[in-house]
Structures are given as C-alpha cells and as structure tokens.
Amino acid sequence: MNEIENYIKKFFEYLNSYRKFSKNTLVSYQRDLNNFLSFLNDNKIFEINRISKRTIQRFMIYLNDKNLNSRTVSRHLSALRTFFNFLTFNDLIDSNPMEGIQNPKLPKNIVKFLDEGYLNQTLNVLQSKENIFQDYVILETLYSTGMRVSEICNLKKSDIDIENGLIKVSGKGNKVRLIPLTERLKNLLLEILKYRNSNDYIFQTKKGGKLYPEYIERLVKKYLSEISEDGKVYPHLIRHTFATHLLNRGADIRTIKELLGHQSLETTTIYTHVSIEHLKNIYKKTHPKS
C-alpha cells in the first residue's frame, strides 16, 4: 500500500466513524477515488504532496477523454474536494491542490415527471388487484411522501405515528424529518401494521427480510412504464413527480424542501422550472389571447 492509498483508507475510516455519510455516498466516493488512484498510478504518482492543481486538471481531461458527462466529472471533483479538505484539516498535506478548481457547468435539464391524472388512474386500478397489496402500498408511499428508495426500505413500524398522521424518516446524513400521512396511505399502512412487530421493517420480502432497492426499481418499471412519455421510469422519478405536483398545486418551495429532506433550497428550486413550464402550457391552452 503506497502513501496515497493509506491516506484514502484513513479518509474512509473517518467518514464511517464521524461524518455518518449514507451508504450510497460512500460507495460513490470509493468508486471515484479508485478512478483517481488508477490515474495517479498510471502517471507514477505515489506521494501525496506530488499531487498538484495541474494533476487535478489533467485528471479532469482524463475523465473528459473517457466521454464522461459534466455531472459525473463534478461528482468526482466533489469526492476529491472532500478528501483533500480532510487532509488539509489534519495537516497531512503541504497545500490543497483543489484550491481554484471549479466544477464544469452543468446543463439545466427540465426535471421529468409523470402526469397526475394518469398516475392516479393507474394507482386506482392497482388498488383493486389481488395479490399485489404490498407493491401497491409501496407505490402509494413513494408518491404520497416523496421518500427516497433507501428511506422506504429502512422504514420500520416504530417510524409510523398513525394517531398523529406522521411518518418519521431518517434521510441523508441521519437527518430526521416528519412527513404527513394522507388518509388513504394511513389506512393502507394500518392494514400492513397488523402483521408487523414494533421493530419490524414495514415492507418485506416474501421470506420476511428487509426490502432492497432493486425490488422497488423493478415494481416501478412493471406498473408505471406505460404512463411515461418515453417508457422510462425509476423510483426517483416518483419523487420528482411528488414535488412537481405539490408545486403545481400551490405548495411553498420551502415546504417542499423540508418534505424532501433537501439540505439546500437551491436543490429544490429545480422544480420551479417545471412549474413555470406547467403554467405556460395552461396559459396557452386557456387564455383567449394566447
């Protein structure tokens, strides 16, 4: 193990022990830092203080040559920035090579979401079908709460407060938030709670184990692909749909931020672009002078 590999090991020990990053973030950081390490090894750079700003710039060129998009390059830089900040804070390097390095500009994509009418119609049809009750409740939970897949998988009976109509969610960075229950979802969860002990996971596999993200990805594709304009659906699309439908119906952007568990309001404002497009379409269809 060379010096840089040793520092990366110390970095992940720190993340696991103190920062309490989510599993997905840790996996992403590990993958991106492994890519950086491969680049350094190819260029015979084995000492931490040999990494300069020029090294980082060459790494960015290396990533671009691999045809990675700007969002992926930015993610790599974010991992490196956290890593070198850790080294700087602990006086393990002479200077921070990330100083002055800027992320590439990201394209402003309009967030995709599902049509409200089609989605509710589909959920109503699924409600009447036999032998898919848990699948149906998972879809209702995704749409009614805007929760992330990992949050739904980790949901336990003790997180459901039926009396006050609330779900307690442990999100990224172990940040806890409360989400109101709709009457429909409250009744559906009551049915499932009959068969769960106090510390049980709400949604389970057929063998009674904890549900896994791939299961939810499969059921979203199975039941909702037909109502997507391009046929592509994924669980996070339901989260986008939840936020967009709330905004279109007049919800305050700061309220949506809290419901989604975003740390920054800037993250939530991507949905305002969708809402503006929605308003434009309504205007064009309804105003006599449009």
Summary of the model, kept short:
It contains 13 helices and 3 strands. It is mainly alpha-helical and 290 residues long. The protein folds into 2 domains: 3-89, Tyrosine recombinase, N-terminal domain (DNA polymerase, domain 1), CATH 1.10.150.130; 116-286, Orthogonal Bundle (hpI Integrase, Chain A), CATH 1.10.443.
Rg of Cα set = 23 Å
Report the oligomer.
single chain
Give the termini distance in whole angstroms: 68 Å
CATH class category of the largest domain: Mainly Alpha
Which sheet architecture does the biggest sheet show? 3 strands, antiparallel
Please state roughly what percent of the residues sit in beta strands, choosing from under 5%, 5-15%, 15-25%, 25-35%, 35-45% or over 45%. Answer: under 5%
**Uncertain stretches:** none
Whole-number mean pLDDT: 88
How many helices? The count is 13
Structural class from helices and strands?
mainly alpha
Helix amount: 55-70%
The number of domains is 2
Number of beta-strand segments: 3
CATH topology type of the largest domain: hpI Integrase, Chain A
